[in-house]
Amino acid sequence: MSCLEIIGDYGLRSIGLGERLLPRTDFTLCHQFTLIGSGLIWNLYFGILALSFGFFLANALALAKASRNPWLRKPAEWFVFVFRGSPLFIQFFLAYELLVLLPRAGIDIPLGVTTLTIATSWLTSAWAGALIVLFLNTAAYSAQIFYGALQSIPKGEIEAADAYGLTGWNKFRRVLWPTMMRLAWPSYTNEAIFLFHATTLVFFSGFPALRQNGDALYYAKFFADKTFNPFVPYPIAAFYFILLTLALITLFGVINRRLNRHLPGARTARLKVRPQIIR
Amino acid sequence: MFYSSFLVVLVLMAVTAPVALAFGFGGALAARSTFWPLRMFGKAYTAMVRGVPDIVFFLFVPVALDQGLEYLRHRIKCPDWTEPVRQGNDFVVCAAAKLPLSTSPQWWHELYGFSLAVATFSVVFGAFAANVIYGAMQAVPHAQLETAEAYGMSRRQVSRRVLIPQMWSYALPGLSNLWMILIKATPLLFLLGVADIVYWARELGATKSAIYAYPHPDWRVWYFLFLLVFYLGMTRLSETVLGHITARLSRGQATMAGEAQRKADT
Q: What is the mean pLDDT of the segment spanning A237-243?
């Protein structure tokens, strides 16, 4: 069997396309590269969606946390504390058990004339449940970053905005928000990298991998268990993740340059790769 | 069992923290060394953890360590064994080289698994700590080191008397961050096969588990909720303690925090 055939069979295995059965014997390097690479689709899916939804919630949370109104501030502070103070692993387990508790048949909401049934069983599957956890988690972490950036906006810029007569939404959109983004971006890059790494936890917590459609690490572990040889699959997974990290750094670097384009070159903050490691 | 598993987690943290710190210290010193291979080793060690998810290491290191140890014992104890160790998909060593020996009691197996976990955590967190400490060493004002050299101290003396004492206040924010991360990484013990709190929460909470059918409904939610609160409490406690240490260490330092303290005193 040539390598191209294997790629054809297993390239999309992780999303349920192609060959149903995983290889049993003769694990070639090609098998390992293909399957682990196909698992990466899930990591990308979780990472990209959680990051892009989380971005908006994080902005809202950061503003709420900086707000003077305690009815806004307190819930935001608690949300951030709970999600940053506890292990993501436990969050996954707890979320899974909570979602399992929802009635299988769905929740009936009586609306007088008709009853609206909300299906809930799909929430227990990884693609939805884990995504929700990751989304909330990254929102909390990014909110903290954005909040820190919001607090360190130079006083002069705010005074200048006031002097121009900008208030409310206009002031926020034209002055505060761009500066906040600019200041937060290096840390936010790390957060993004670290979120992609966290996606590997999904299939090791309660969420089941349906029909063995797992992520990159799931397949790496599969091979390591089958061959009793950890020295091949894990470095392959590591290799993929290093590529992913490099791609992320490039992408975020481009955005960083755009955010800082009005500044003289010397003051441009260089992106430093310092991924924080575990949540 | 559930309560003693908390002890397991606490012991793990207590053992791992100093060992990882020592690893990190060694790694950082190696990365600064003038001897090329040693420097390369230190840099590779610190760079290892960047870009690769930590869980990969948590899965990889124990198996690699286990097989490495067994292989070594295999070479020492059974020199007349001719077959290769890797036979297809199997890893075969002679019976005398098995770790732990299949005849040894149960607690020995558990202890071995636990020490593998500690070793793994130490290696991984040592790399993180090396990163932090290396950065802190770079952050010590260069003028201070030059002054020390001007006083006629040798390289070693400079390291011991100026660089290392000064470094701590720069390293502390990173190290306290690391401690938080260590707390939050402890549930990964579950992945290493140690019967820790996650394991027991799953077992005891379930209505019907591998060991026993419990006469209560599914309580796993409550067990996990309790774990969540436990970790939140740990985080809060550490934040307070670390805040005190930071304040103590930044006394008299030429940093912003030190300056603020000086102003507050006068």
A: 85
CA–CA dist A279, A85 (Å, integer): 9
Instruction: Give tens-digit pLDDT for A85-106.
Output: 888 888 888 888 788 777 665 5
Which among B63, B181, B227 has CB closest to A230?
B63
Cβ neighbours, 10 Å, residue B132: 23
DSSP at B169 = H
Interface confidence (ipTM) of the complex: 0.71
Residues in chain B whose beta carbon is closer than 8 A to a beta carbon of chain A?
A: 49-56, 59-60, 63-64, 67, 86, 89-91, 128, 131, 177, 181, 183-188, 190-191, 198, 201-202, 205, 218, 220-221, 224-225, 227-228, 231-232, 235-236
Find the domain containing B146 and state its range: 2-194
Task: Please state, in angstroms and rounded to a whole number, the distance separating the CA atoms of residues B55 and B192.
Answer: 10
Q: What does the pLDDT look like over B19-29, one tens digit per residue?
A: 888 888 888 88
Domain A45-108+115-210+235-267 part of CATH 1.10.340.30: no
Residue B261 in any domain: the answer is: no
